[in-house]
Specification:
Elements: H1 10-26, H2 29-37, H3 44-53, H4 72-85, H5 91-103, H6 110-120, E1 126-128, E2 145-147, E3 152-161, E4 168-173, E5 180-185, E6 191-195, E7 205-214, E8 216-220, H7 221-260, E9 262-263, E10 266-267, H8 272-301, H9 306-331, H10 343-355, H11 360-370
Parallel strand pairs: 1-4
Antiparallel strand pairs: 2-3, 3-7, 4-5, 5-8, 6-7, 9-10
């Protein structure tokens, strides 16, 4: 068994610099706040620049299928920077979840290869039609969508992230021929995507309703289940890197503010009680980085410890991000409670991500089973 590599490579550092430069220019806090108040799920121009022009939409897709042929390590770097900017782009849902699900299908089939090429090129945005709280490593819930013999789907799924603005919907469904994964074009007749009131305005949720919507089956039964589990596992592992980015911004911003804010003739950051709180956050951040990098490296190398690494990362990073965001709001005092300051966006992203792809408690339960640690009885 190889030792996990938790350090960033030179190529990963270069990728980080490029993504951060783009997001600094195109996703400053005022632009994100304005986007959150608009009726658009994301800014198409920003997504085109990030996903298509920079090529990040195809990082996980092999070269032969039109992608960059990179690994989860590079995708994790992008996720970190998206967390730092709370960027309202469909990277997690399209470039991670949808792409990973299709990679688990038969990529030698022309239909699957074509969909992957479109997603990798950023020409199409896709999403996996499952409730965002779905947890990797556990039995998938009974399908709420049914397929008809005429090649159509009917049913409803609530709490789907990335459905608003997506052109491709990947829908798990039961039908006369058994369970399967189906591709649906969002603009076809019989497809309705209804916005839900979402806590995280930068990652809005929706209800997807299908009424005899045309569909193409891209994976059958066992292969579909395997593809979905791997997609959810990859999504959860990389979400930890996004949570790391959220925590990093929150700590940096809290330190900056407490250096500049004066009380009793001195910076409030010089008060011992606040120093202790920020030092505790720094320790959590360092541990979160190790956990997130371990998960990304395990996914990239297809380590036998993937499930353990992802469960540890999610159990730790989710709570670290929420704690950092809460402290950031509190240490800003009254201004941290205002709509104009971006701190609330980070708190909402952290809280919504905490239940996305499995809660910390659920991941701890999964981890206990993976390492054969029985729960206490009596």
């Amino acid at each position: 068994m190889s030792t996990p590599d938790l350090l960033y490579s030179e190529a990963e550092d270069d990728l980080r610099a490029a993504v951060r430069s783009l997001l600094t220019d195109r996703c400053p806090a005022p632009a994100v706040l304005a986007q959150a108040e608009s009726d658009r799920p994301y800014d198409p121009a920003v997504w085109r620049a990030l996903g298509a022009e920079m090529g990040t939409a195809g990082l996980l897709v092999p070269d032969k299928l039109g992608g960059q042929g990179a690994t989860a390590r590079e995708a994790a770097v992008v996720m970190e920077e998206l967390g730092r900017a709370v960027a309202p782009v469909p990277y997690l849902t399209s470039a991670v979840l949808a792409v990973s699900a299709l990679l688990g299908c038969d990529t030698d089939e022309d239909a699957v290869a074509r969909l992957l090429r479109e997603l990798a090129g950023g020409r199409t945005t896709g999403t996996l039609v499952l409730p965002l709280p779905g947890t990797p490593g556990e039995e998938l819930p009974p399908a709420t969508v049914r397929s008809g013999r005429e090649g159509t789907l009917s049913g409803e799924v609530r709490g789907v992230a990335g459905a608003l603005g997506a052109e491709l919907l990947l829908v798990p469904a039961d039908g006369p021929d058994g369970y399967g994964l189906y591709a649906v074009t969002a603009t076809d007749p019989g497809v309705t995507v209804t916005p839900l009131t979402s806590l995280d305005l930068t990652r809005p949720l929706a209800t997807v309703t299908l009424d005899r919507a045309p569909a193409r089956r891209v994976a059958e039964a066992d292969r579909a289940r395997s593809a979905l589990r791997r997609a959810l596992l990859t999504g959860a592992g990389l979400l930890a890197s996004e949570q790391l980015g959220v925590a990093e911004w929150c700590l940096t911003e809290a330190v900056r503010h407490t250096r500049e804010r004066h009380q009793f003739g001195r910076p409030i950051g010089s008060f011992q009680a606040l120093k202790h709180r920020m030092a505790a956050l720094w320790l959590e951040l360092v541990s979160a980085r190790a956990a997130a990098r371990h998960a990304a490296d395990a996914l990239a190398t297809d380590s036998p410890d993937i499930e353990v690494a992802v469960a540890v990362a999610q159990a730790y990073c989710a709570e670290a991000a929420v704690h950092a965001a809460e402290e950031c709001v509190q240490l800003h005092g009254g201004i941290g409670m205002t709509w104009e300051h971006p701190a609330h966006l980070y708190l909402k992203r952290a809280k919504s991500a905490e239940i996305a792809l499995g809660t910390p408690g659920r991941h701890r339960q999964l981890l206990a089973g993976l390492v054969d640690l029985p729960a206490p009885t009596g």
